[in-house]
Amino acid sequence: MKALVLERQRVLRLRDIDIEETLTPGDVRIAVKAVGICGSDLHYYTDGRVGPFVVEAPLVLGHEGAGTVLEVGDEVEHLAVGDNVCMEPGIPDWRSRAARIGRYNLDESVTFWATPPVHGCLRETVVHPADLTYRLPEDMTLAEGALIEPLAVGVHAAARAGITPGDIAVVTGAGTIGIMTALAALAGGCARVIISDILQAKLDLAASLGAITPVNVSTDDLTHAVMDMTGDWGADIVFEASGSARAAEAAFGPLRPGGTVVFVGMPNEPVSFDLVAMQAKEPTIETVFRYANVYERSLELVASGQVDIWPVVTDTFAFDDAVAAFDFAAEGSETSVKVQIEL
Ligand SMILES: [Zn+2]
Predict the structure, then answer these.
(1) Residue 38 Cα to ligand 1 middle (Å)
(2) pLDDT score recorded for residue 208
(3) Which of 148, 176, 189, 302 has the fewest CB atoms found within 10 Å of its own CB?
(4) Single pTM value for the model
(5) Ligand 1 centroid vs 275 CA: distance in angstroms?
(6) What's the 113 CA to ligand 1 centre distance in angstroms?
(7) Neighbours of ion ligand 1 (CB under 5 A)
(8) Among candidates 82, 83, 88, which has minimal Cα distance to 104?
């Protein structure tokens, strides 16, 4: 089948690849129709690695996928041929201790699409467990379906934050994950979200999607801005979603005493904190690693109209132009948020 293959660092090719996939009774075979390009895909392309995961053999990229069911295994009851679906890309061992306590995202044996040596979904078809495949609501597009994966990160972050209705949240970073986190925080009960970035176009996009106040940190200081907006008290919750080590270190600045910081982004460099300054606020600190048990919730939020995710897709490329799509995304554009590939 045709696939987008990362041969090695910096070398991407759209070519035929043999992937043996047998359909077991609990699986579905899916024609892939839409795939979003994620920051991790770009890191594998430009750096050949993400943290401890190194590309040592040709790897099919992509993990934010949606498609149409082509074939169902004998035991699959909730899906039928022709259904439009999105796929949760991490397959845990359901017998693992992490899975048994409900935190299957933390199972160390999880196989996750486009994480070496596991091939991703930028290919014509995939076989996937039916219990990690979700039917899209009637009026949802496949492009929206491919956005459920990043929305799931935001929903998981909002859940970890333990939001109380009326909370004021700060989200640092207005990329896809920052915007998804802001939308999930509002849907989860926040009265308002203050979002920061250095790119005005991304801030404008975020601000158009709800009760979201932009702060451009290329000209304004975030802590000052938040203190101004909260009567010198600070935000109840700060979500760090930029993945910048500096932003992570500054995350406690705009926080109110006794508030909660959620680290969503994953910085490349070590992060250090002024522990005593942090202690003086007695914050609750949460972290997220991907997500667990939030795909149905994420689909419901979109289906009910509570969150509008479609505007986040700023650029769409055909599968034949997949290499160009990656070059465009890797180059980085001031106005581009999510780049998707249509198959
Ligand atoms: Zn992703």
Answers:
(1) 4
(2) 97
(3) 189
(4) 0.97
(5) 31
(6) 10
(7) 38
(8) 88
Q: What is the pLDDT of residue 245?
A: 96
Distance 292 CA to ligand 1 centre (A): 14
Supply the pLDDT for residue 336: 95
User: pLDDT at residue 268 above 90?
Assistant: no
Residue 294 lies in a domain: no
Rounded to the nearest angstrom, the distance between the alpha carbon of 63 and the centre of ligand 1 is 6
CATH number, position 213: 3.40.50.720
- Segments forming the whole domain that contains residue 29: 2-147+309-342
Residue 282 has pLDDT above 90, yes or no: yes
CB neighbours of 62 closer than 8 A, spacing ≥ 6?
4, 35, 36, 37, 41, 113, 114, 120, 121, 122, 123, 341
Same domain, 19 and 135: yes
- Give residues with Cβ within 8 angstroms of 126, minimum separation 6: 21, 29, 30, 32, 65, 67, 87
Residue 116 Cα, ligand 1 centroid: separation in angstroms? 15
CATH code of the domain containing 89: 3.90.180.10
Arithmetic mean of pLDDT, 53-64 = 96
What's the gap in Å between 257 CA and the centre of ligand 1? 32
* Confidence band, pLDDT 50/70/90 cuts, at residue 52: confident
Q: How far is the CA of 276 from the centre of ligand 1 (A)?
A: 34
> In terms of domains, do 166 and 265 share one?
yes
Q: Rounded to whole angstroms, how far apart are CA atoms 266 and 272? A: 14
Residues 239, 179 share a domain: yes
Q: Does residue 205 belong to any structural domain of this protein?
A: yes
Q: How far is the CA of 230 from the centre of ligand 1 (A)?
A: 33
**How many Cβ atoms sit within 10 Å of the Cβ of residue 15?**
11
Helix residue ranges per DSSP H, 209-308: 222-229, 245-249, 275-279, 295-303
Q: From the CA of 177, how far away is ligand 1's center (Å)?
A: 8
